[in-house]
Amino acid sequence: MYAAPHRRTTHRLATLDVPVPFWMRAPGECPGMHALEVAMDELAIACELDPIELRVRNDTAIDPDTGLPFTHRDLVGCLREGARRFGWADRDPRPGRREGDWFVGTGVAASTYPALMMTGNVARVTYDGDRYRVEIGATDIGTGTWTALAQIAADALECPVEDVDLRIGDSDLPTGSLAGGSTGTSSWGTTVVTAARAFREEHGRTPAAGATTQAEQPESDLTERFAPHSFGAQFAEVRVHAETGEVRVPRMLGVFSVGRIINPRTAHSQLTGAMVMGLSMALHEHSVLDERWAHVVNHDLAGYHVAAHADVADIEAVWLDETDEHINPMGSRGVGEIGIVGASAAVANATYHATGIRVRELPLTPDLFLRGDPQRVAR
């Protein structure tokens, strides 16, 4: 995420009698970035630097882990645009501003998620004399696949989207990879573009009825030449009640660098939905383990508290106008996961700015701000 000459990353493993750790809310970039971005906030304060300036100074065009260049990285653009929209320049860096019974603070965190692709996809294009039937065994789990793939197919075939008869969600269709990890549109879309271009090359602009072409997803050496990632900046304003420790988040903003946006409406829905999940992670979500058997005991929505409508106020997601020329034929990167990464850290950093109390665990429950447990709170 950042480059510095003196940097070391280590891992330690501990054998515990608990359930196997795996994806919770989102892949590992989500909880991992929470720890890093809270630490970056602490570092900025220790260095007497603005948290955005610290991140800008340590930005890099080369992935420190692999030594490869990014396909496209504009983290600085996200931070700068977010600061402008959020009104960061008016921020007093000193913590503890109070309005009536509420301490008020703002925080920032960066985000990243790898631009991944699944392999083994196959698509088929058939002209029935009136419309182009585009078939691939993809799925739509509410992420807008029906819309995005139809648009991608129409663009590749150079025809109106109304002329595309998209067919997905059936095991009888040509093979499609799973939906997850922000891989769907990139993987399926690349295959649809490949099949559409092959169809035009084989049958031309005036195909005969029944003309059909099937094509496999092409092999790619992208990860041997580049480090494909998306980036973003999350901003949050919080209010912490002086007497009860209750935390409210009246305002959140996310600015993202995710390549070309296929459909603004579905992308906005994905990003804001993920930010709500990050808010929920920050304030509410907590898996309680039975100390005798290590089972999760609050395994339904009656006991596992998630954000409701009353918890969500002003949440906005925007993106930079860009195209990733290296990543795939569409120039797009996935937006499903990036919206949650960094959101909880922005909220946590804002609670420190509001109260001067550094909490290093989640969720940010009221008791942690009442200075009652020195083992859990770093002042």
What is the 3D shape? elongated
Based on helices, strands and strand pairing, what is the structural class? alpha+beta
- Biggest sheet, open or closed, and with what strands and sense? 5 strands, mixed
C-alpha end-to-end distance: 27 Å
Q: Report low-confidence residues grouped into runs of 5 or more.
A: 372-376
Q: From N to C, what is the helix and strand string?
A: HHHEEEEHEHEHEEHEHEE
Tally of DSSP β-strands: 11
Widest beta sheet: strand line-up: 1-2-7-8-9
Instruction: Specify the helix fraction band.
Output: 25-40%
In short:
The chain is 28% helix and 18% strand.
Description:
There is one protein chain. The chain is α+β, with helices and mostly antiparallel strands. It is built from eight helices and eleven strands. The chain has helices spanning 29-46, 51-57, 75-86, 145-157, 184-203, 222-225, 264-283, 343-355; strands at 98-99, 102-114, 122-127, 132-135, 164-167, 212-216, 229-241, 247-257, 314-319, 358-359, 377-378. The strands form three sheets. Strands 1-2-7-8-9 form a five-stranded mixed sheet, sandwiched between helices. It has a four-stranded mixed sheet with strand order 5-4-3-6. Helix 1 (29-46) packs across helix 2 (51-57), helix 1 packs parallel to helix 8 (343-355) and helix 7 packs across helix 8 (343-355). It is elongated, with a radius of gyration of 23 Å. The model is unreliable at 372-376 (pLDDT under 50).
